[in-house]
Amino acid sequence: MTTTQQQHAAELLHSLHRPGSPLVLPNAWDAAGARIVADCGAAAVATTSAGVSWSLGAPDGDELDRERALAVVARVAAAVTVPVTADIESGYAADPAGVGRTVTGVLTAGAVGVNIEDAAPAGTAPLRPVDEQCARIRAARKAADAAGVRLFVNARTDVFLRAAGDPADRLAETLRRASAYRAAGADGVFVPGVVDTGTIAALVDGIDGPVNVLVGPGAPPVATLAGLGVARVSLGSALAEAAYGLVRRAATEALRSGSYDSLAGAIGYGELNALLA
């Protein structure tokens, strides 16, 4: 991808974040999945750090090294013609300078967006301090500016997902963090762990920028989220979880009963092979 092509892809990704007409992202974790998602009509492709980690034999949660993660981003970006945004967890780095190097690698891999989360490393407080997270966001923005690409920085805050602090204070804390992250250079704010429509409406009303929510079984449908003003809807690890659930069901069925009914509905060999040709 040339610099001009990447700049165009980045601008396109920005334009797809429309409150009331959300960008829907069924997250992929390999080239085949990315090609399938794009073939289904997705306007962009997002990776899922959980799916990527699991496919490489590592647990999710900053356990994967930068090089292996970015290699997957490169394969996904090469497999599709739509913009790609990469889930880079908390940046695959211990400090802001390292986050900047990760973002440079993301851009080299061909992606034009990133998710950066404020979850703290295992064994520490649930979330990073706001000023520390802002420094990481600024480093991501600086690296993208240096490359001349308008990277879409999606700042994820895990206040609700990690059940951080007093339940009565979580909305206010999320809004506080969102405001700080936007000021630090984030383009959008991702708030996973929220499915209550009243809370989602309050987030949309209180955040000056595109709001991203995480969905799966039990979450409101896209049409409802659109009506609330959500600009981005992510399936996150849900597709990977469903796919691995099928692996377990089909393997259990074959090993215990000797039947294969769980495999019904699969994409045929020829169709899948042709899709990747």
Describe the protein's architecture and organization.
The chain has 277 residues and is of the alpha/beta class. It has one domain: Phosphoenolpyruvate-binding domains (TIM Barrel). Helix content is 48%, strand content 10%. It has an eight-stranded parallel β-sheet with strand order 1-8-7-6-5-4-3-2. Helix 7 (170-184) links the parallel strand 5 (152-156) and strand 6. Helix 2 packs parallel to helix 4 (66-79) and helix 4 (66-79) runs parallel beside helix 5 (96-109). The protein is globular. The two termini are 19 Å apart. The mean pLDDT is 96. Keywords: Lyase. GO terms for molecular function: lyase activity. It holds the Pfam family PEP_mutase. This is 2-Methylisocitrate lyase, PEP mutase family.
Pick out the low-confidence regions.
Answer: none
State Rg.
Answer: 19 Å
For the record, the CATH architecture stands as Alpha-Beta Barrel
How many domains?
1
Number of helices: 11
In short:
Helix content is 48%, strand content 10%.
Label this structure with key terms.
single chain, 277 residues, alpha/beta, TIM Barrel, eight-stranded parallel sheet, lyase, 2-Methylisocitrate lyase, PEP mutase family, ICL/PEPM, Pyrv/PenolPyrv_kinase-like_dom
